[in-house]
Design a protein that fits this description.
The chain has 4 domains: 46 residues; 103 residues, Band 7 domain (Tetrahydropterin Synthase, Chain A, 2-Layer Sandwich), CATH 3.30.479; 112 residues, Phosphorylase Kinase, domain 1 (2-Layer Sandwich); 108 residues, Orthogonal Bundle (Transferase(Phosphotransferase), domain 1), CATH 1.10.510.10. The protein is 31% helix and 28% strand. The chain is built from 11 helices and 19 strands. The protein has a 6-stranded antiparallel sheet with strand order 10-11-12-13-15-14. The longest helix is centred in the N-terminal third of the chain and has 21 residues.
Length: 404
């Protein structure tokens, strides 16, 4: 053969070897690879040897499917009598559905950690100090039950949990616990537009509302202040206390009572359900389930744009929530990223403070427009305040989701 022919042959062999090298993916035992094509999940590669298409397929995720041992940082928990104990939690988990583990939740380890912390706080917060140590097995069993129920939605399985109480409990002054923010993950306030974390109670803030003990501020809006509080049993709730200028208005109290009744129609799957209220109180207040999780505004601000699969799931979840809300005869009137909580079970639409029942009277004055600039339908500027246009919620949805 001519020298040129040999050169072409050698170069061809090198190119073929390089193509085979980038096309063959070997997956070791105990791991799986997720293959993307056209920016979305295409297939899952199990242990073995597989072929991918160079330039068309990418492999952004490698998931460990072995049993993982996750040791969480020590957690300080306040008991019912204001003493503090420390607990160490060790989780034994395994990924069973890699696709769910990647696309249904931003970080399944963080989700497990938050749920474990919330459960321990709720249980220990309702116990006296002398009951905590003897009930360690009960705490572990309840914790394991809660995590096992939630974990399949995130594509993981919880095998077992070890609860270890460490350090000598040290008493803490009640007034310190009353004003200090709770030891919960740094979750932005659902009412904040800038993702401000929990704030301590101010001197003018009440310490109790109804049967609930206030712990910290979550935020404030046009109608009142929202607090993180605990029920007598230690469960976290969000309590909204109405401002004095509204509380002195008898007509407002009647409308507020109708709002509470209307909000109770919406499925808890889509929003924060109402658990208690006193529209005739001084001042009126409303307690809803506390939904741990960041607001959509906080996620966008601190983590940037969402990947396409997560964005599609988020948009569908918000649209589903708005459909359920509108089916109950409610127009939210202030749908925006800071009023959308990214919970473990999907997006939750919150803050019905300026929502209204379609069949009720208006909460606004003549000539005033309710909502947030940038998320109002153009027809809202022309519509009568007592009759929000039917396009207001779809327009807010189409304004909020592209920002993600």
């Amino acid at each position: 053969m001519a020298p040129l022919t040999w050169i072409v042959l050698v170069l061809g062999l090198i190119a073929a070897a390089a193509l085979v090298w980038v096309s063959v993916k070997r997956v070791p035992p105990g791991r799986v690879l997720l293959v993307h094509r056209y920016g979305r999940h295409h297939r899952t590669l199990r242990p073995g040897v597989h072929l991918v298409v160079p330039g068309l397929d990418s492999v952004p995720w490698s998931i460990d499917t072995r049993l993982l041992v996750i040791t969480l940082p020590p957690l300080a928990v306040a008991t019912r009598d204001h003493d503090v104990v420390r607990a160490k939690l060790t989780l034994y988990v395994q990924v069973t559905d890699p696709v769910k583990a990647v696309y249904s939740v931003s970080n399944y380890v963080q989700a497990l950690e938050e749920l474990a912390y919330d459960t321990v706080r709720a249980i220990v917060g309702g116990m006296a100090l002398d009951r905590v140590a003897p009930c360690r097995e009960v705490i572990g069993a309840e914790l394991c039950r809660n995590l096992k129920e939630a974990a399949p939605a995130w594509g993981v399985r919880v095998d077992r949990i070890l609860v270890d109480l460490v350090d000598t409990p040290q008493p803490t002054r009640p007034e310190t616990l009353a004003t200090a923010p709770p030891e919960v993950p740094d979750v932005p306030s659902p009412a904040d537009a800038d993702g401000t974390p929990y704030q301590p109670l101010l001197s003018e803030d009440p310490r109790r509302v109804g049967r609930y003990t206030l712990v910290s501020r979550l935020g404030q809006g046009g109608m009142g202040v929202v607090y993180l509080a605990r029920s007598p049993g230690g469960r976290p709730v969000a309590v909204k206390v109405i401002r004095r200028e509204f509380a002195d208005d008898a007509d407002f109290k009647q409308r507020f009572a109708r709002e509470i009744e209307t909000a109770g129609r919406v499925s808890a799957f889509h929003t924060a359900p109402v658990v208690d209220a006193d529209p005739a109180g001084d001042p009126p207040w409303l307690a809803t389930e506390y939904i741990p999780g960041p607001s959509l505004h906080h996620v966008i601000r601190h983590h940037g744009a969402l990947p396409s699969p997560m964005l599609h799931q988020l948009a569908a979840g918000i649209a589903e929530a708005l459909h359920a809300i509108h089916a109950c005869g409610i127009v939210h009137r202030d749908l925006k990223p800071s009023n959308i909580i990214i919970s473990r079970t999907g997006p939750r639409v919150i803050d019905f403070g300026i929502a209204r029942a379609v069949d009720s009277t208006a909460l606004t004055r003549t000539g005033h427009v309710v909502g947030t600039l940038g998320f109002l339908a153009p027809s809202s500027w022309r519509a009568r305040p007592s009759r929000p246009p039917p396009t207001s919620m779809p327009t807010a949805w189409s304004s909020a989701t592209p920002r993600a």
